[in-house]
Amino acid sequence: MSVHGCQHLSAFKAAKGTDPFRIIYSYFIACPSADARRIKAKSCVCHTCRQPTLRLHACMYCIYFGCYGAKHIHEHAKSKKHNLAIDLTYGTVICFSCEDYVYDKDLEDIARSFSQKPSLNLVNLKDPFSSWEPSEDELQLLKKNPKRRKVDAKSTVGLRGLINLGNTCFMNCIVQALTHTPILRDFFLADRHTCQMPGESKQCLVCEMARLFQEFYSGICTPHIPYKLLHLVWTNARHLAGYEQQDAHEFLIAALDVLHRHCKGTNGMSCSNPHLCNCIIDQIFTGGLQSDVTCKQCNNVSTTIDPIWDISLDLGPGPPAFSSHSTPSPGGTGFTNSPGNYEPTSLLECLKRFTRPEHLGSSAKIKCGKCHCYQESTKQLTMKKLPVVACFHLKRFEHSTGYHKKISTFVSFPDELDMTPFMSSSRNDNNGFSNQIIQDMPTSLSCDNK
Amino acid sequence: MADLQERKIKDAQMRATINQKLVETGERERLKELLRTRLVECGWRDQLKAHCKDIVQQKGLEHVTVDDLVAEITPKGRALVPDNVKKELLQRIRTFLSQQSNI
């Protein structure tokens, strides 16, 4: 399969040049204008059977279109001895004498020049798909590294253990979850990060993440020792330094924050308006949490939307809904286990509780913006915008008057999660709600929050 | 019998008209691009590419022809297209047709 065509094509080119190819290509394959498209629509039919069949071919010697399936072009080639034709779908040339398609460098150059013209903008194709062609540098790299690895269904590429460096399991489990988040993995393996700290790449946590992805997907099976990552985290998030047990959720938030900062290249200051940030962390993890406070007097609703990276869900016994007393008292709330007991045991129940309207008692009166009086109010949280990857944080750590207790209730979560009932649009009783189904819970960790 | 013939002719005419409309408005190109994107996303392209490589290795690089490859991968390719992709394309075509007032 060379790019020098065949002897028949060379003979044709010597006799007639590349113009026949160019003309046919420009008229029927890469139509540069609406008029050309109209001509193409009318004339792209087989001359023998008058049908717009697939795999139509145009004879290069005369004006004849023939379909391939019914062999009309073959008959034409044999009877007229015109042995070269162009496939009108892809622009490839078939030589009937050689009985196969042939590839010629000159013709491919012509074809490429057409695909780069602005004709595609006319049909609104801004970024059409094209297969990857290696650049000169990449060709050199490929020649120097001849080893190839095939990833099939059974390969374990990407799975690697992490050594515990002294109570660092909180970090290890978050790192495992992040390295297997498909969107994040694709970003790093496609080398999309440009370091904002040139010359100090060792201090950049995002570069360290990129190196970590390289380690994970290198195919090495022995456990990895993430000491550089740990050191960078200690430097950038002092509260996590040391060898005590830490909270995995805190680590996740601290890591996302540092990655977000290092993506932008600022030193120390977080982006004050997260809505304007376009770094990969914000694109993936940021969602919008809507908080509606309804004044009981005038029913005025004051709404705020906050950007959040995770959804923190309460566990354990909780207050009932719509209690008229200011102090919470036991009552039924409709959870599945039993009327009197309202401890959530599944993710859906946690979310129901999270989005339930909460009556702010008389001790928490808020001045209403509309009627300007201190009134009791109801507060409700709903999701305005879902993140691409949702992190659910189960608050197993109960701060209760000075003592630390861990809630070990088993919380089940489904394979597919429909967030429609928890969206702001459901609350507003919109008819045009969109189904936002999160499949295959992307980040599901069960780790100890201490 | 004549009825069936008539039906066939009408079907063929309808097909030709629809195809013409699709090409004129550029919708055919857009649909092709959409299909291409979806098939790349779901891994269909990679699967078929791997299968093609196997066939070429089996038959030998110098002896395999495009027709051989087409014959071998067409049934597999048709079977591997996911249902949701088919549905999405059909929906797009239906929408397009409903917007055309003169068919």
Describe the structure.
The complex is a heterodimer of chains A (450) and B (103). With 450 residues, chain A is α+β, with helices and mostly antiparallel strands. Chain A has helices at 7-16, 19-29, 34-43, 72-80, 105-115, 119-122, 136-144, 169-179, 182-189, 205-216, 227-236, 248-264, 280-285, 347-354, 424-427, and strands at 56-59, 65-67, 84-87, 93-95, 100-102, 287-295, 301-308, 311-314, 358-360, 366-367, 374-375, 377-385, 392-395, 397-400, 403-406, 416-418, 437-439. The longest helix of chain A has 17 residues, at 248-264. The termini of chain A are far apart. In chain B, helix 2 (27-41) runs antiparallel to helix 5 and helix 3 (44-59) packs antiparallel against helix 4. Chain B is mainly α and 103 residues long. Chain B has a single domain (2-99), classed as Serum Albumin, Chain A, Domain 1 (Orthogonal Bundle), CATH 1.10.246. Chain B is built from five helices and no strands. The chains are: A alpha+beta (450), B mainly alpha (103). The interface between A and B is medium-sized, with 22 and 20 residues. Chain B: GO terms for molecular function: transcription coactivator activity.
Average pLDDT, all residues of chain B: 88
- Report the end-to-end length of chain A measured between terminal Cα atoms: 64 Å
By CATH, the architecture of chain B is named Orthogonal Bundle
Overall outline of chain B: extended
Trace the largest sheet of chain A across and list its strands. Answer: 2-1-3-4-5
CATH topology (level 3) name of chain B: Serum Albumin, Chain A, Domain 1
The gyration radius over C-alpha positions of chain B equals 18 Å
First-to-last CA distance of chain B: 26 Å
Tally of separate domains of chain B: 1
Percent range for helical residues of chain A?
25-40%
